[in-house]
Amino acid sequence: MNKKVKNASVALEGVTHNMTLMLGGFGLCGIPENAISELVNKEIGGLTCISNNAGVDDFGLGLLLKKHQIKKMIASYVGENNEFERQMLSGELEVDLIPQGTLAELCRAAQSGFPAIFTPAGYGTEIAEGKEVREFDGKMYVLEHAFKADFAFVKAWKGDSAGNLIFKGTAKNFNFNMCGAANITVAEVEELVPLGELHPNEIHVPGIFVQRIFQGTDYEKRIEQRTTRKKE
Amino acid sequence: MNKKVKNASVALEGVTHNMTLMLGGFGLCGIPENAISELVNKEIGGLTCISNNAGVDDFGLGLLLKKHQIKKMIASYVGENNEFERQMLSGELEVDLIPQGTLAELCRAAQSGFPAIFTPAGYGTEIAEGKEVREFDGKMYVLEHAFKADFAFVKAWKGDSAGNLIFKGTAKNFNFNMCGAANITVAEVEELVPLGELHPNEIHVPGIFVQRIFQGTDYEKRIEQRTTRKKE
Amino acid sequence: MLDKTSIAKRIAQEIKNGFYVNLGIGIPTLVANYIREDIEVEFQSENGVLGMGPFPFEGEEDADIINAGKQTITALPGASFFDSALSFSMIRGKHVDLTILGAMEVAENGDIANWKIPGKMVKGMGGAMDLVASAENIIVAMMHTNKAGESKLLKKCSLPLTGVGCVKKIVTNLAFLEIVEGGFKLVERAPGVSVETIRKATEGNLIITGEVPEMKI
Amino acid sequence: MLDKTSIAKRIAQEIKNGFYVNLGIGIPTLVANYIREDIEVEFQSENGVLGMGPFPFEGEEDADIINAGKQTITALPGASFFDSALSFSMIRGKHVDLTILGAMEVAENGDIANWKIPGKMVKGMGGAMDLVASAENIIVAMMHTNKAGESKLLKKCSLPLTGVGCVKKIVTNLAFLEIVEGGFKLVERAPGVSVETIRKATEGNLIITGEVPEMKI
Questions:
Q1: Structural domains of chain B in order of their starting residue, each with its CATH number
Q2: Residues forming a β-bridge with A189
Q3: Beta carbons of D89 and B112 less than 8 Å apart
């Protein structure tokens, strides 16, 4: 099953204005850098983006925000981006903040064919306003509905032409849960390896969840908070 | 975090009559052979067992059935076990058959703190009788409640003292989903390796889901249907 | 009239390039042998493998690598192993393109019964209920009548259901049929089988529009 | 009166052998430095790592290995990486034993507010709502009063809530308190701080039973 495409430009075929996109990554860790660049190049606007964070001012989803390509942002934490805050407070940008665990699980629900979940997160807060709540075994839960998205853009460490993916470190994060959670999942990888090189025990995402795959270029992999200690 | 115990006997401390147990494996693939033997040795009875299958007459859960240690079986497919059928038809054994995907997901729900799920499986069949059903986007779903179990017994290929596990081949099956789905999860492994030997990218089950771990002995790993082809 | 092998061959023609396919036990398993060589297909088995290959060579069986029928199998390059929840995510999430399974009864509205004969046979539904509840493309492979000669294509199933309104296509020893509004649409006759024979063997409403071609196997 | 380091040290005393602990950003992060050497503790970070170690040596930072505060970290032997859904399975499923986080306000019934100041600050709740909704053991680390000198231990939170009735213990610069039926139970005073000082700084109901000992740091 050959899902390999040449580059980000081909991988983004069919992405049009006003679509809903999922984008993997936590902070700047594991973000689909090539897909984001290509969305900027193609000047696709009016987007609804589902992503845990919104990048920083000059990287990640911040690049799309700067060009006003995002109409609505669905995220759990957006604290690292001043332009984001400005657009939100001025009303240019719609924002739907939801708990991080709910965000992850609503991706998984979409991936797994579940229409909705009952989660305790946000019960009794403004997040639950207007939502159905329900008691199970004496504890209250909020009913949250699975995401629906047109494209999911994920980034992995290694992949093969069948769409199988392996992540490195904490870059697994939402990239795993978004595979197969949209109509079309596009994976970009640091290294596209020959079929059969990834051991079937070690594959994180089976290829069935991925429709297109390409080897990305020029990964910056920017570090948001460089914290170190000195050797003694 | 040292969770290593000496053997199956120690690992089963606290297992008493009439408990609800989860047991991993699909058919005879990846079943916790040592834990099952020890349940037979300890003659613990009145058990409710949650397991995809019920073993064969003389292996796997069939060993517990033969000794009438199982009061109730929750499974998806029990076709390989004649003694099972006899006990069920004679009324000696309570049986709750549920769809395989529901079985897996109700383990995951218990592992993940979800009280219930909406699944399409079984809608319109006797499985859904007496259960709440609900429409989402024009499709009907059945509300199923997460399992509650006292112990989960799983079997992995490799593990370490922190409880981290790696599976081999299709032996991952329900073993993965049952980890952390009961009050206490006991993992038996073919090989207990030194801490740090399992690569953090390759660990299937993070140790937090496992309370006790031991290296099993005398694995038979019986093959249920030996199918082969000849070399040409 | 088709034998089991020919039923499998006819079903194989329905498989398109790029399909992920889940095969049930029995006739469906045979389908894997007759896939056109110029298309790429991957087989998923719900116990946790994608990219299932043929049986292993003698002496190379691995107890840890089986299919849902508990048979020893192999994994092709690009295969992956996974847990049961993720396996049913593939199925429930509609990532598997085609499900082929056997049946004891199919009703003209697409209902299917294949897991239980009350008082007689209670093996369990395994993954069948998840498969039929979620798959958008289900082909049933079965004999047109049971051993007593009674039709298995019914107005209404008499056995406990596995799923409701889910079957789309049926290939039997006598015919290829599609479930449409109002009943079983006869699409093709098995070689040498008359429309009249099929009509007699079908209890449910049989819909015939124009000339019914003979299958090409 | 405690400084931030001392607050972290006092909280560290609450961590028991074998605990899996999730640390929030700010003072909670400091707690990792003061764990007793004779106990085993593992730190979970909700972005997908268990067995978090110290910051990497200079030059050994890896952009793919960070904590929830987006800081570069290391992984200890026995560590594992995982996806966000499984990470919150650990949290929601009550596998994490202790959650330590900061707060802007805590109410006497255990309500907590720490994610939003309407019209001023809207960074989002991140994983905090999942953590407080699920953890059975939550310790809040914060200053007793805000910069304007107003109490952060209230009868009722004025800011949008993060979770309801979930906080169990609070360590501030002035005191160690537990949430009990009826209000904040004063368990320990910070060194040199009088009960009267604590009473004045606490808007919510302060419960004092007998002599209140001074903390040992």
A1: 8-113+148-215 (3.40.1080.10)
A2: A156, A215
A3: yes
